[in-house]
Amino acid sequence: xxxxxxxxxxxxxxxxxxRDMAYVLVSMFLLMYIQYTMQLSILQYSxxxxxxxxxxxxxxxxxxxxxxxxxxxxxxxxxxRPWIIIGAVLNAIAIIILFTVRPEGWGFVAFFxxxxxxxxxxxxxxxxxxxxxxxxxxxxxxxxxxxxSLVTSCASIGQIIVAACVPMLVQGxxxxxxxxxxxxxxxxxxxxQSITFFGVKERPRVVEKTDIVTFKKMxxxxxxxxxxxxxxxxxxxFNLGMNTFIGFGMNFFYFEFNYISGGDMLFMFxxxxxxxxLLAQIAYSFLAKKFSRQKILNVAVPTAIVCYLxxxxxxxxxxxxxxxxxxxxxxxxxxxxxxxxxxxxxxxNTIEYDQLNTGExxxxxxxxxxxxxxxxxxxxxxxxxxxxxMLTGIYSLSQEIAALEIQAASGxxxxxxxxxxxxxxxxxxxxxxxxxxxxxxxxxxxxxxxxTWSLVSKKYKISEEKYNEIVKELAEKSESTAV
Length: 483
Known about the structure:
Blueprint: H1 6-37, H2 42-72, H3 81-100, H4 105-137, H5 141-170, H6 174-199, H7 215-224, H8 226-247, H9 249-256, H10 259-290, H11 293-312, H12 322-358, H13 363-392, H14 394-410, H15 415-426, H16 431-459, H17 464-482
Helix pairs in contact: 1-3, 1-5, 1-6, 2-4, 2-13, 3-4, 3-6, 4-13, 5-10, 8-12, 8-13, 8-16, 9-10, 9-16, 10-12, 11-12, 11-16, 12-13, 12-17, 14-15
């Protein structure tokens, strides 16, 4: 196969910056935006949470459907690129609407249901096409590892920009700040994805008249590819644990410290998240040349679990300080970054595995499994977080802060009054509530890591050596067919 040119490599990877900025804004901060800027009853908030859960579950299945649509439609500009740019533009519009249109009460609940469903479906258009394009760019193992590492590094840049900066911008002016941030990120999403659209050289596709994907064919792809099922389940469980830890972050820092200091500490913690993840993306391609993925996991998983347990003991056994929290966070995120890249590579490698066994190459359907697992994990994660917040009483306290933010947006009170009053509300939390929050923040990721590690070790069979054999055999078949 012709070597991947730099223009395609970097245009594809850089485009991920805008995608992850947009995704992190919604996945990490949308529920926080609602929690801290909208006045909703427990029932209304529960319905909102259910809507998010239901939409993400639907979106997870919609990923498979979108994969089939991409396989069955053909544009002059390519198989994937048209869907990438169409999805980006429509998703940008949905993001702006979600963070700027503000009905009240049940009117907001109904509006949110329609808007959030629109966001999910438009993101799916972009997401399936974007990740479906990756494995089609190269089937060389070393080049694919480098590309995945570069893509996930760019994703980390997008994540750090949003995850680190938003908490510092919204305190005391949350309603307006979220609106401005949403508009800015929506524009950047389109701009960065335009780089991918115009810069990537997509390989010409040979279209056969019989090349139409039906639901039966989709089911067959999933049924016949046992390794895809294994690593897809691992991706689901791992993302559930990883995202739950981050998802509790803002509430953890607000109530462990205070409204203003907590936001500043969250900034540093998310910097550790981005730095640790980015270092992992950079390190992975080097480590993968010397160690197998299994050996990388055998070190990364236990190290992360030990750090999680130390995190749980902060203030009880380990001294409670920002330095301690950030050091543990950096190690956890570095280890999880290595695990994440390993899972992405293993998912992509099931494409050639399926091709060798069946003679068919279904990149989009196989890649849809990754998006399916991430979104289904996100649905479960948001549901778990909402339940914990309501059961611990932290949601009720946060609603008092939301009332202050709404007054600030109308000009009734100033930012200083919001912060001072919010700090008084935060001070009302009990030690029992805090420990319950932190226990859930740690227990879910630890269980997820253990299950993921066990499944990969026992059930995933496409080692580096096995993958190279598959690629070699495919090349030999191609040559014999050509002759």
